[in-house]
Amino acid sequence: QVQLVESGGGLVQAGGSLRLSCAAAGRTLSGYAMGWFRQAPGKEREFVATIRWSGGATYYADSVKGRFTISRDNAKNTVYLQMNSLRPEDTAVYYCVADTVGPRRSLSRLTRPGDYSYWGQGTQVTVSS
Fold first, then answer.
1. Sheet holding 78-83: strands in order across?
2. Is 96 helix (H, G, I), strand (E, B) or coil?
3. What DSSP state is assigned to residue 115?
4. CB atoms near residue 34 (< 10 Å)
5. Is 50 exposed, middle or buried (0-12, 13-18, 19+ CB in 10 A)?
6. Each residue's pLDDT tens digit, 24-48
7. For residue 120, what pLDDT band results from cuts at 50, 70 and 90?
8. What angle (nearest 5°) sits at the alpha carbon of residue 90, between those of residues 11 and 21?
9. What is the pLDDT of residue 14?
10. Sign, Cα dihedral of 95, 98, 99, 103
């Protein structure tokens, strides 16, 4: 079992920045991918970014590429999502996710909610125009 706890959400003006954190507990994360999804009201959950814990390879949704950066801190067992140049359409509940991933599996194939077994409780991000 992996427990995920997100923090760092809030209200920000368009063009501003926020950093989300997700602390993982329960087991070592070697062999895991961790990532972020988001869900806006009335919309389906949407993939945002993912990172392979071993090696740090990353993959992003086109909608956030160049604005968001996913990273991890091995010592703290924590993954971060740095969000810059925020837009009103980034408003959503952001969820941290995790699951095991084979060393040869491409991160680009880990973009569906069903690809991840472990989910955090979510943190609200609101971007005002």
1. 3-7, 18-25, 78-83, 68-73
2. strand
3. G
4. 26
5. buried
6. 998 888 899 999 999 999 999 999 9
7. very high
8. 65
9. 98
10. positive
Q: What is the mean pLDDT of the chain?
A: 96
What is the rounded CA–CA span in Å between residue 106 and residue 57? 10
Straight-line distance from the first to the last Cα atom of the chain, in angstroms, rounded to the nearest whole number? 40
Report which residue type is found at 2. Answer: V
For the residues of 15-82, what is the DSSP string, one character each?
T--EEEEEEEESS--TTEEEEEEEE-TTS--EEEEEEETTT--EEE-TTTTTTEEEEEETTTTEEEEE
Q: What is the largest CA-CA distance in the chain?
A: 42
Structure-token match 């959400």, residue found: 9
- The pairs formed by 3-9 with CB atoms below 8 angstroms and a separation of 24 or more are 3/118, 4/96, 4/97, 4/98, 4/118, 4/119, 4/120, 5/96, 5/120, 5/121, 6/94, 6/95, 6/96, 6/120, 6/121, 6/122, 6/123, 7/123, 8/123, 9/94, 9/123, 9/124, 9/125
